[in-house]
Amino acid sequence: MDLWFSEKQTNNVKFSIRVDKQLYSGQSEFQRIDVFESPEFGKFLTLDGYMMFTEKDEFIYHEMITHIPMAVHPHVENILVIGAGDGGVVRELTRYEEIKRIDLVEIDEMVVEVCKEYFPHTACGLEDERVHIFYEDGLKFIRRCKEEYDLIIVDSTDPFGPGEGLFTREFYGNCYKALKEDGIMVNQHESPFYEEDALACQRAHRNITESFPISRIYQAHIPTYPSGHWLFGFASKKYHPLRDLDEKRWNERGIKTHYYTTTLHKGAFYLPAYVEELLKDVEK
Amino acid sequence: MDLWFSEKQTNNVKFSIRVDKQLYSGQSEFQRIDVFESPEFGKFLTLDGYMMFTEKDEFIYHEMITHIPMAVHPHVENILVIGAGDGGVVRELTRYEEIKRIDLVEIDEMVVEVCKEYFPHTACGLEDERVHIFYEDGLKFIRRCKEEYDLIIVDSTDPFGPGEGLFTREFYGNCYKALKEDGIMVNQHESPFYEEDALACQRAHRNITESFPISRIYQAHIPTYPSGHWLFGFASKKYHPLRDLDEKRWNERGIKTHYYTTTLHKGAFYLPAYVEELLKDVEK
């Protein structure tokens, strides 16, 4: 059997993974959902044919989108997570005892059901009693919120198609409003390398910069995402991602990670020259 | 025309680039050499079917393998470069006025000729009068050298096939001998992500650690290399890659870069937890 899943990362670049077998294929109200088993990456989930995560490298994305803000904000109790029906973000968050409530807003209930069945290691966090799942459009949910959250994590799909609204000025403005006076918002921010992705990056950064006084970008190596060079946005009302990093406090928690460390935290914000330039163009 | 170049990054992962046309194909005494034109990456060179560099992202590799040691060592005059027949490493080095001599040892003259014809932007540095090219096996060349160089850059192919000898304990021992008392050796060090590459990484790191008192690893995002997460080795007799970094001195030179900055320099040494663990296992 010679079976390959391929994703066109651009019209001219293709990333392919050998597949042992397809474990699931379904169509929800919103998108096509597939699960595959592969020798290199273990199981992986795709939405509308785009790679969402693999068992082998999901830890990188999920650690970097959660532990960075958690190591900066001194006292996080209430969190809103938008997207992330796979449970990976929530799994990392439930490792913090001080967190009291996690509201998870996922538009597609079928994603949650599929992940619970095929990715128990990722979805396990969803069972935590602090987690409240709302099957709703994040765009609408956020409009009702006011000064409720210490942290908002936007774990969206790409800014093309269903996830598009989660990259707009209106949405980021509503996130600002939904955060307490010292709140932080973190979002997945695409890649700076391929032209179309880089433009999406710039647009998102411009929109965030208009709402938040502190807006910085950080990076990680995620092999199954286009170019492997992935960015995250750190937007904040008060705390600076480096000056307010408290390494001692975070390390005393004893949380075991495979990618994140408080040393790597700092390096993640030291961007290549061409990325700095890309972002500077929209900061003016 | 639907023409694709594919590289199997492992037996189970394939990276493919759309090709406009093949510009060159030849067989040297050592390897098959091909040049392609692509819409996404411009022209690119392959050796025995493996991606060596593309016009679009070669700047990342070449800046990171040269400017890191140049920003640490206070006074580099004599340099040995092994491999690197494409001229990219030499191009970056020729931007430093204080460098007096660059010996380039490339086993395959045909690589140099092909790069001069198809990659003038990369090969341009080879015309500098400080550059002396030796068409020889680097393994043999290095045996004759003693305390001659301030810096050795090992720009090898992978540790499988012809480049294998450039990852051995004997070779690194000879590099140590060829360096002056405060010399630095930098080498390309593979990727930590896929299992076979990670093992090669560990072996190389173990072998370097046995010869050099200071041996550290740093990373860069290189989209066309397997996993996009690429490592370099920094081995040194005296200077520490972070404690002896002189940001002011380097920035005063006014060298314009697209990836390297002296801030990024520091972050490049802050490795993910799983890479730290991979390396620690062989440091004992």
Structural overview:
2 copies of one chain form a homodimer. Chain A is an alpha/beta fold and 284 residues long. Chain A folds into 2 domains: 3-54, Spermidine synthase, tetramerisation domain (Spermidine Synthase, Chain: A, domain 2), CATH 2.30.140.10; 58-283, Vaccinia Virus protein VP39 (Rossmann fold), CATH 3.40.50.150. Chain A has helices at 58-72, 88-93, 109-118, 120-123, 138-143, 169-178, 195-211, 247-252, 262-268, 273-283, and strands spanning 3-10, 13-19, 21-27, 32-38, 42-47, 50-54, 78-83, 101-105, 131-134, 149-155, 179-188, 214-221, 229-236. In chain A, strand 5 (42-47) and strand 6 (50-54) form a beta hairpin. The mean pLDDT of chain A is 96. The A-B interface holds A 4, 6, 10-18, 38-40, 57, 60, 193-194, 219, 221, 223, 227-229, 257-261, 263-264, 266-274, 276 and B 4, 6, 10-18, 38-40, 57, 60, 193-194, 219, 221, 223, 227-229, 257-261, 263-264, 266-274, 276. Strand 2 (13-19) of chain A pairs antiparallel with strand 2 (13-19) of chain B, so a sheet runs across the interface. Chains A, B: Keywords: Polyamine biosynthesis, Spermidine biosynthesis, Transferase. Chains A, B: This is Polyamine aminopropyltransferase.
List keywords for this structure.
homodimer, 284 residues, alpha/beta, Spermidine Synthase, Chain: A, domain 2, Rossmann fold, 13 strands, 32% helix
